[in-house]
Amino acid sequence: MGQMKQGLYTASGGMCSGMRSDQKTHENQSDPCVTYVLSSVAERSIDTMIATGESAPLIIHDIQNLLSPASLYLKTIEENEKLSPQGVENLHTIQKVIEDIAYITGRLSQKEGFRKPGTYERVPVSDLFREVCRMSQPVWSGLATSHITISSRVEDEQLSVYGVPAELREALVNCMINAADALPDGGHIALEACRKEKMIEIVIRDNGTGMDEETKDRCFDPLFTTKGYKGTGMGLAGAKSIIASHDGTITVHSTEGEGSAFTILLPSPPPSEEMEAEIKENKPQRRLRILCVDDDELVRRSLSDLISRDGHQVITSRNASEALTILEREGPCDAVITDLSMPGSSGYELASAVKHMLPHTPVILLSGWGYRMAKTESPHKDIDYILGKPPKIRELRNILAQLSQEGA
User: Fold this and answer.
1) Is 210 helix (H, G, I), strand (E, B) or coil?
2) Which residue among 9, 19, 61, 281 is least enclosed by CB atoms within 10 Å?
3) Which phi-psi region, left, alpha or beta, contains residue 159 (left: φ > 0; alpha: ψ -120 to 50)?
4) The pTM is what?
């Protein structure tokens, strides 16, 4: 277990490192603060996963509970600490990693399959390349005895693909790691994108060892690996599965001693879908009194800290019974934010009790099962808003700003 934890700690520290592309050498520059946050998440998650007698849903719920304070405190650090531009970009990368972990664990909880409809969106290729390079860098920076350089070129900055961002990042990161594995003595990886009729072509090219014909024919087969005990044989197989689920294709051209090129074709966004304008965070019009209910102390504290910094008054509670007692004793609140799964009464039951006591009090539900619940399930009659865990800060702030305007 110690080796497993150490591996995750190393990866967590690497996520905080700086990265420069366009033919520049990548170097690790860890931030001890964010490394500590992610290491704590890793340690508690691993301890839970190896405990006997726990079911997968409970493990998933616990992991997403742990991600919530990490996400919330990263936002607090960004807004309240003096960080360099590189430091801010590092935090953004870590936030993307946290969102992807939350998405993947949420995906595991869905019995219906790999993904559900309604999760597609326009994904700018330039953003995708930047995120993939930064997210994969901690993994492959230690693979080569010499330096690996990265370059990226996008035909048009407006070029976009249509899909699930977390899944597309996962597929491209797998291809990047495969390219880095082919560069044991260092070399170069190039990412390129251009339009091919109605599709977008993405090429990930390296000048590494290349593949023989047998390896090239089998590289997308599940469990096939040339890396011995170091490989799982699932990276490229997983990438192919993701690309296929997006109605795309992935092929490889490789020559021994010269390198490999993976060519991915993905659909561009449909013409009927207009580019969504960036959602701006609305500012609250007045100070709200908010009751936060969660059985996890870290979640309560981090959520309270973030909301309080926006000028609101926050009262915290460990469970539904305690929350109802507070409302009876101290009077109504402007909003109740509650976890879904708690010992005793659930968030649904608390919402029903709150609406019975105070019919006009808005209830915001936080679900450790992710954002798909908000998109695919019929809303509970007593729930006004649903957010995933970790909650997206901008969405939470916009909800609170809306509530402050309604009562102004």
Assistant:
1) coil
2) 281
3) beta
4) 0.53
